[in-house]
Amino acid sequence: MIRNPAVKLFVYGFLGLTCFVMIIPFIYMVSLSLCSDSEIFHFPPPLIPEKLMFSNAIRAWDSAPFFWYFINTVIVAGSITTLHLFFDPLAGYTFAKFRFYGRDKLFMLIISTSLMIPFFVRMIPLYIVVSRLGWTDSYLGLIIPFIMHGYGIFLMRQFIMPIPNDYIDSARIDGCTEFGIFLRIIIPMCKPALITDGLFTFIYNWNAFLWPLIVINSPNMRTLTLGLLVFRQEHFIQWNLMAVGALFLFLPAFMVFLVAQRYFVRGVVMSGLKG
Amino acid sequence: MSVGYSEMKQVEKKDSESLPIRIYRVLTGRSIRGRDNVVAYTFLSIPLIYFSLFFFIPISLDFLGSLYEGPSLISKGAKFIGLGNYARILRDQTFLSSLKTTFFFILGTTGISVVLGLFLAILLNERLMLRGLMRSVIFFPYMTSLVIIALIWSVIYDADVGLLNWLLTRVGLPTQGWISNPNTALISMIIMSIWWETGYDMVIFLAGLQGIPQEYYDAASVDGANAVQSFRHVTLPLLAPATFFVVIISFFNSCQAFIQPYVLTQGGPSQATNLAVFHIYNVAFLHLRLGEASAMAFFIFLIVLLVTATLFKFWRTEVEY
After folding, report:
1. A1: which DSSP letter?
2. Would you say residue A122 lies in a domain?
3. Where do runs of H (alpha helix) occur along B44-78?
4. Is the pTM of this model over 0.90?
5. Residue pair A32/A239 in contact by the 8 Å Cβ criterion
6. Do A114 and B51 touch (CB under 8 A)?
7. For A46-102, what is each residue's pLDDT tens digit?
């Protein structure tokens, strides 16, 4: 507890200032998006525009195929998340509950290659592999290289390990198939871990940038992040429209964050302290 | 991870003796172990193909590819030149200066965001009004796409009509070129990255702080320790695992920084913000010198590995208490 009023004042002042600094760029983005074309070059830049130009949203939407950017991003991030939610627990369950030849070595290999090796090491050969498979400039190329991850597998394994084996054994004795045990017993028990895994995967891939930049060439395959960059190159001067574009990318992720905030914080903590 | 393993061993011991398993074995006459192998590898078949194709093979290909000259290892013109690419990149001034830039970027971003994150976590661990809201606000930037963040900050940093220069003129300071001036561009980029990352560090530190039992502080104050002493001798040592984790993640984040230079500065002005991954990307996909880029990637990877191993070793010896 802080009792000294001077210290208390300092603490609140410091935290208030920090929060202000954290928020102001977002407020700036929103206010820029509502500025008229002439207002964006005023000095000082208006934090509250004189006239709120909601028509900017329509202008931005019409001046680039944002609809397709949206569809592409939803398809890619959505498929990746769905596949993650199947394969991460499947592999996690296998590593947690089966004894098989080479289990520990295999697990360490998967975890270390996917957590300890930065993406830029794989970037170039991954491009070669994907182009060999003929998947450049396609959904397959965007989705398939990311359908599972060591982090998710590790998370699910940690979560499944404490589940008592009696559930699995009794299902086995009742004649449930091995896959049925996974689908009907394990998956329903992992809901909290699945939510965390799914949210992180979705946000991460919603924001993905480097890989789409490498594999995508044609304009109609662009995801939102790529589209936004091209949009900026074309409308370099029109910051208000650029800010609208940024909001298109920002708002869906923001909604997800607002609704599921506690899962995010828990996910960060889980990944941090159980590792 | 070591905790996980010992847990697993215990589970194993228990289930090898568990009654249902024994009944099952007697009834079916099948050995659990053999059956486990079949089921496990069936379940793991797709994951194993996946990891081989997109992790194991690419990682080995990276080194192999770095030994060839030409557009890529698999193209017709590829010529084996051994370590020639490594000799070349070590003489390449642009690459060496991008390594230096990356070093300062990592040092600035990681150093300041870890200290700031720890400080904020300590403050926000106290009982304060609006504590939950403030935590969320500070954590939020980390969950936002860096593309958006770099776009907004490029406007904030604008030399003519940017928010930051307006603030400077307001308090009577001279305006700066920020990202358009080679002397301040890297610092501007570091500030933005700190702004982005601090909240994450704070959340990890908060979790670490909440794991320290109150009794330790009580004991320290009974022994007559003041606030600074109990921070030095209770909080800091017990936060060591969290600190280690934060440093590693922050190090990884900043050595992989790509969006910051790509969106904010395009590596300029006069290559002041030419971070390593951005440089590799340009060499590989703009100049199509894949062999050389692979060599750079592998070279940096070796440095990263060395730093990580050193951190681990340092952590092992320092953190045991």
Report:
1. -
2. yes
3. 45-51, 57-65
4. no
5. yes
6. yes
7. 677 777 778 888 888 888 888 999 999 999 999 999 999 999 999 999 999 888 888
Nearest CA in chain A to B297: A121
8 Å CB contact between A213 and A136: no
Q: What is the ipTM of this complex?
A: 0.87
Q: Which two tokens stand for residue A56?
A: 């900017």
Contacts of A209 (CB under 8 A, 6+ apart): A225, A226, B145, B146, B147, B258, B259, B262
Size of interface A-B (CB pairs under 8 A): 272
From A23, A109, A206, residue closest to B137, measured CB to CB:
A23
Look at residue A28 and tell me if it is in a domain: no
Q: Does residue A115 form part of some domain?
A: yes
In a domain, A65, yes or no: no
Chain B closest CA to A273's CA: distance in Å? Answer: 7
Q: Give CA angle at B144 (B142, B148), nearest 5°.
A: 125
Question: CA of B46, closest CA in chain A: separation in Å?
Answer: 8
CATH classification at residue A262: 1.10.3720.10
Nearest by CB to B294, which of A21, A124, A249?
A124
Give the largest Cα separation in chain A, rounded. 76
Domain B88-319 maps to which CATH number in 1.10.3110.10, 1.10.3720.10, 1.20.1600.10, 2.40.30.260?
1.10.3720.10
Record: contact B61-A125, CB cut-off 8 A: yes
Residue to test with chain B: of A120, A176, A232, most B Cβ within 10 A: A120
A91 contacts chain B (CB < 8 A)? yes
pLDDT digits (tens, 9 = 90+) for B16-72: 546 666 666 555 555 555 677 888 888 999 999 999 999 998 888 888 888 887 665
Candidates A111, A124, A237, partner chain B, best to mutate (most B CBs within 10 A): A124
What is the total count of domains within chain A? 1
Q: Which domain holds residue A107?
A: 71-273
List CB contacts (< 8 A) between A203 and chain B. Answer: 143
What the block records as the tokens of A16 is: 């208030």
- Out of A15, A93, A232, name the one closest to residue B123 (CB): A15
The residues spanned by each domain of chain B are 17-86, 88-319
B154 Cβ contact list (under 8 Å, min separation 6): B179, B263, B264
Contact across the interface for B20 and A173, Cβ inside 8 Å: yes
**Residues in B touching A260 (Cβ below 8 Å):** none
> What residues of chain A lie within 8 A of the CB of B193, using their CB?
none
Written as one letter, the residue type at A151 is Y
Instruction: Give the separation between CA A185 and CA A188, rounded to whole angstroms.
Output: 6
CA distance A134 to A272: 38
Distance to chain B for A108, nearest Cα, Å: 10
The angle, 0 to 180 degrees and rounded to 10, between the axes of the packed helices B240-255 and B290-319 is 170
Given a contact cutoff of 8 angstroms between Cβ atoms, the answer to whether B281 and A124 are in contact is no
